[in-house]
Design brief:
Layout lengths: L1 H82 L3 H28 L1
Helix pairs in contact: 1-2
């Protein structure tokens, strides 16, 4: 009787394990779908972030180009400023130089914000 009881307990334990494995088998496809959906969402998010990074880099390069253009203009104005003999032209060019320098500061600030 003792041996039969032990066999029944072993059988009961194995039946419980079989039921548990059956439940896991039934839930695995849904878990897989959930994980695949998470992977797809993460991949889409990653691609979106990569696109945003590319756009920020383009914007930053454009700002660098704008700064370079203004610096070239400042150099040209300074050269012209020292070539002019009229005081009002000298002052007007000085104001233009100041305006371009302020624009450069603003553009550099925008560039830093993009980083």
């Amino acid at each position: 009787m003792q041996a039969e009881l032990e066999k029944l307990l072993i059988l009961q334990d194995r039946d419980q394990k079989i039921r548990q494995i059956g439940i896991e088998i039934k839930t695995l496809p849904q878990q897989r779908k959930n994980l695949e959906a998470q992977v797809a969402a993460t991949a889409a998010s990653l691609e979106s972030l990569k696109q945003r990074a590319r756009q920020l880099e383009v914007d930053r390069k454009k700002l660098e180009l704008d700064v370079g253009t203004r610096q070239s203009t400042i150099s040209r104005l300074k050269t012209q400023q020292y070539e002019t003999r009229k005081n009002d032209e000298f002052q007007a060019m000085g104001h233009e130089i100041e305006r371009y320098e302020k624009e450069i500061v603003q553009l550099e600030d925008q560039e830093l914000e993009l980083m």
